[in-house]
Amino acid sequence: MGERERFLERTGTFAYPDLALYQVARFFIVAALEMQSVAVGWQVYEITRRPLDLGLVGLAQFLPGVFLFLVAGHAADRHDRRRLLNICYGGFILCSGLLLALTVRGSRSVHFIYLVLLLLGAVRSFNWPASRALLPELVPAEYFSKAIAWNATTLQAATILGPALGGVLYAANRGPGLVYGTATAASAIALVATLRIRSRSESRPAEEMTLHTVMAGFRYVWREKVVLGSISLDMFAVLLGGAVALLPVYASEILKTGPWGLGLLRSAPGVGAAVMAIALGKWPIRGRAGLIMLWCVAGFGVFTILFGISRSLLLSLLSLLLVGATDMVSVIVRAILVQFATPDAMRGRVNAVDMLFIGASNELGEFESGLTAHWFGTVPAVVLGGVGTLIVIGLWAWLFPELRKVDQLHPVDSVR
Known about the structure:
Blueprint: H1 3-11, H2 17-48, H3 51-78, H4 81-104, H5 110-134, H6 144-173, H7 177-195, H8 211-214, H9 216-223, H10 225-241, H11 247-254, H12 259-282, H13 289-309, H14 313-340, H15 347-376, H16 378-399, H17 401-404
């Protein structure tokens, strides 16, 4: 091992300055969105007291992606991805500022909040494929797996700090104004960090935007059955098993805590995910990656059920911590599979498809949780979701035998 290789081994992926700036930007933007999400959820539930309206919070952020993800993916493959990120981070600043303005004006209408969330969803539609497609440009291929793990660690650190800080600031200020102001400032820091990343715009084919070119990502994912199986598994598991949208109800009515308790509940999955990401960064999965992912998603379902029936804050936090830890295995395996299996010229469009699947699992999952809670009650909605996740695992293990057979995580040839 040469001197440079030993240096990189000691310093890790942060030996690359542009990657460090990327991580700083991602940390602050995710922290901003997470603390803002806590404030929006509590504010909406405080106004209406209806779980269904919490579901609409997720739906409002998901719908723009349905209409824009193909265009967003094509844009990420045609234009400078760093510049796209700069525009998106400016959009996040605008959305946080609008929520702050509504609060300062004393608005009690959830409809205005939903309008801002629609705009936020549109910005996120362009942010995800550009951000994901930019990451492989910042490090050599041999360090990419570690970059994925460290990126996941950074994001989970933000998902821990963001909700906890959001809950504390909301409780201290007795309202969401301070949270939205802090989110605006954090988004501005992310923008400054991204502006300092050196542009790596390469000459890409100037494809005309046609139905054929924008659908290329779908066609590619459909051909790569391992990629299709991994992202669709994550989508349906989290769509059914996600309980995040109902945490304000649990904090307020079941566990009898205030906004601070909601912040802890929102942070708990991030703690588990961060610990798992650090562990996988130090001890990567060496074999049987597909089976490990399937078993971990099954654990996600089991711990979701445990959270659903819990009446103890401590047990609820432990359950959510384990939910985050098991989910992180799926997140990292899927991210490596998708990036390794995708040529650079296609990364924007393939990541846009991945974004749609993830959006369906997260934001649409919030709507599903709110709707089922409206129909059956909060606890049955969460428990049924966990059971649904276990059913999905059995089906996917049968439908995608290629996924079960994935052994080591390597570049393209190993996943085809």
